[in-house]
Amino acid sequence: MLREHRVQLALSIRVTIAALVALALARLLQLPLPLWAVLTAVIVTQMSVGRSLMATFDYLVGTLGGAIYGGAIGVLIPHASEIALLAVLALAVTPLAFIAAINPRFSVAPITAIIVLLIPTMTHATPFASALDRVIEVALGGVTGLVVSFLLLPPQVVRAAARTLDEMAGALGELLAGLTQGLDVEALHRIQDGIGQALVDMNVVGAEAERERSTRLAAGPDTGPLLRTLLRLRHDLVIIGRAATIPLPEALMPRLAATLAQIGKAFADYFRASGAALQAGRSPPSLEAVESALDAYAAEIAALRSEGLTRSLPGDAAERFFALGFALEQMHSNFKDLERCVAERAGTAKSSKRGEAD
User: Fold this and answer.
1) Per the CB 3.0–4.6 Å rule, which of 52, 163, 317, 331 could disulfide with 149?
2) Residue 115 burial class via C-beta count within 10 angstroms: exposed 0-12, middle 13-18, buried 19 and up
3) Crossing angle of helices 185-214 and 49-76, rounded to 10°
4) Given CA atoms 112, 113, 116, 118 in this order, what sign does their dihedral have?
């Protein structure tokens, strides 16, 4: 269970550390309301530095706006009586709530204004001092959450890419098995949906990683090539899935079963080894097994053609048969791109033997 939810566990640890550090700093600085600093640190501590930066900025903007407006209302309009306090509170909350409804960035502004107005009635501080304290507390909590996220940031892009590659490895095995046994539409949709969700997650963390790179909070290669390569590999699997909805013709099955099994193992191993190399920061795995399996498959196809077995295939069967070969060759080409992406992440420059020959 811990392995399956390691990302969520890492987030919970970061949130806890951010809360503890914010409380310790607030006590050290003798802030009047440490609770606000702790809550801010917890709120802005997100899954990545990029998201934490955006959350911190939005939160500070909302707090600053609410503190300034609430403090100004409290200073300019006397509210010694209960009725006057209710009127001032309504005057402070109504416009800020309306602005927050239009722009979620200011969602914390009404809350800040309420605290700025009501805290002086309990602590006997001035509205100006109350507003200044809220800004300091929120700034402390926001910076604490941002720093903790930066220092305890797991490689989210790499994890997402490795998970996607693992999904593709499992999917390829099921799809190639469908070429000999058939694959129903429901199973095909389940397989493709799993890969699609992994790519959606990859796209989200990739966008956050690019935000981090643009703000110089993180270094590393552009995530675009890796994401585009994974998308192309997903398209290859879609083509194989379409071919796998009906088993191969019985005349071809005995001749291709062994080579397809070899391809399935070699390709799946390469998917998983590439994911492991990404996570470990190692150079990419060798494409030798993939290319050897493809060579064996190509030799078997050439033998089938020379014997005239492919000419007797019905139109739809021939279409699926040749689409399968095209998808496997495209996947090999995309493996070369994946190899370059892994090498770039590892800081190496390695190319496949076949790539050198080409």
Assistant:
1) 52
2) buried
3) 60
4) negative
Q: Which CATH architecture has domain 156-357?
A: Up-down Bundle (1.20)
Q: How distant is the alpha carbon of residue 209 from its chain centre? A: 9
Write out pLDDT tens, residues 53-101: 666 677 778 877 888 888 888 888 877 777 888 888 888 889 888 888 8
- Token pair in block for residue 333: 């080409």
pTM here? 0.59
List the domain boundaries for the chain: 6-151, 156-357
Summarised one tens digit per residue, pLDDT across range 293-336 is: 999 988 888 887 787 776 766 666 677 777 888 888 999 999 99
Around Cβ 59, how many Cβ atoms within 10 Å? 22
Residue whose pair of structure tokens reads 């399968």 in the numeric block = 324
Please give the C-alpha separations between residue 276 and each of 233, 271, 310, in angstroms, as whole numbers.
17, 9, 39
Q: CA 165 → CA 186, 202, 250, 299, distances in Å?
A: 22, 11, 32, 28
Residue type, 265: K
